[in-house]
Amino acid sequence: MTDGLGALVALGVAMAVGTFVTGCLPLFISLSRRGLRRLELWGSGLLIGAALTIVIPEGIASVYGSHRNDGALNGDSEPIINHPDIIAACLLGGFMLMFMIDKYSASHTSPPHLQGGELQTLSGGHHGTATEMTSEIRAMLSSMLGLLIHAAADGIAMGASSRSVEKSLRLVVALAIMVHKAPTSIGLCTLLMAEQYSKRAIRAGIFVFSLATPLSALLTYFIIRLISPDAGDGSTDSGSRHDIGAILTFSGGTFLFVAMHAVQHLSRPPPAREHTPSSPEHHHAHHPLDHDHPIHTDHEVQAPAAPLPEHETFSTWECILLVSLGTVTPKLLQTLFGAGHDHH
Q1: Mean predicted confidence (pLDDT) in 190-198
Q2: Cα–Cα distance between 233 and 19 in angstroms, integer?
Q3: b/e for 39-67, b at 16 or more Cβ within 10 A?
Q4: What span, in angstroms and rounded, lies between the C-alpha atoms of 203 and 10?
Q5: What is the spatial distance between Cα 204 and Cα 188, in angstroms, rounded to a whole number?
Q6: CA distance 47 to 147
């Protein structure tokens, strides 16, 4: 238990620091949009692979393993619980939870100055009136709400995997989340830059975002520990394994939604940009919940000497290749680092 908590804390600290540093990069250097898109596509594949080949199978194995162990101890071959129904309910519950959060957040996160497809430009990044300042603060909080909820959902999977006896599962899930968060944090920074917040406010926003997943993971860890104290200590207790399996399967459902949303968004051709020659400070910002990837925000802000990189798109086969490489990576890593593990 202590070893699992220590590993989770170490991963959480590394993730928070890495997310914060990566997210602040656009404040100092110009990044290649094509390179970020490539990372996003590969990261989307990682989420799909982690869900379908690692998290969900491990959850199912734990659920059924709990019955096998319980049957071996009690000499009972009849299932007490309908395991397929439990698995289906957990998968569907995780998927639908993220769907409802996504739709609810999308309907409540339209900043006042983005309505109608136009962004109010505040000269010099300063707010002229108290009303404008209040509006900007409200817009920043609501724009980040969906991202924070998605990040917290990632923490559920990370916290649940840390209670598993499978060490390679912890590594693969953490890697998938880290790769997913890197372009997301950069995208959050570019979105806030496009809305012309101060650098101090942007850093504060990224700092809060960087803490969301680690804190959610720790909260999940302690909740599972409270519900099932023996889980994660190598115990074969049927209740412990069943609880871990159900939570892993639920988190697999959340992974599936985020990954599906990612691939759908990234595989679409970018919308035509409306350019107004008479307005050099024109902005066109996609909704911040476009799969947590506001990196697709086109912005021209306060640094005309550093032109934005061209918005290049990938061919269909390039998208398929990058996502496919991502989907097989988790299983390869589990094979490499989890050799000799036995579920039974």
Answers
A1: 78
A2: 30
A3: bbbbbbbbbbbbbbbbbbbbbbbbbbbbb
A4: 22
A5: 12
A6: 16
Give the residues across from 284 on adjacent strands: 298
User: What are the C-alpha distances in Å from 239 to residues 124, 205, 212?
Assistant: 60, 40, 29
**Measured between alpha carbons, how far is 20 from 208 in angstroms, rounded to an integer?**
9
Confidence of residue 92 (pLDDT cuts 50, 70, 90): very high
Answer yes or no: are the C-beta atoms of 153 and 98 closer than 8 Å: yes
Q: How wide is the angle at C-alpha 106 spanned by C-alphas 32 and 116, nearest 5°?
A: 80
Residue 111 in 3-state DSSP? coil
| 5-to-59, 209, 230, 240 alpha-carbon distances in Å | 20, 22, 14, 17
pLDDT at 276: 43
d(CA 192, CA 264) in angstroms, rounded, equals: 24
From the list 60, 76, 57, 58, the residue with the least C-alpha distance to 68 is 76
Calpha distance 286→315 (Å, rounded): 22
Contact 206, 23 (CB under 8 A): yes
Secondary structure (3-state) at 309 = coil
Q: Which of 49, 290, 20, 258 is nearest to 156 (CA)?
A: 258
Residue whose tokens read 């289906």: 88
Tokens of 178: 């880290």
When mean pLDDT is compared across 81-95, 131-145, 161-175, 196-210, the lowest value belongs to 131-145
Q: What share of the chain is helix, strand, coil (3-state, %, to 5)?
A: 70, 0, 25
d(CA 316, CA 327): 16
Which residue(s) pair with 249 in the sheet? none
Sign, CA dihedral 292-296-300-305, equals positive
| Rg (alpha carbons) of the chain, rounded to whole number | 22
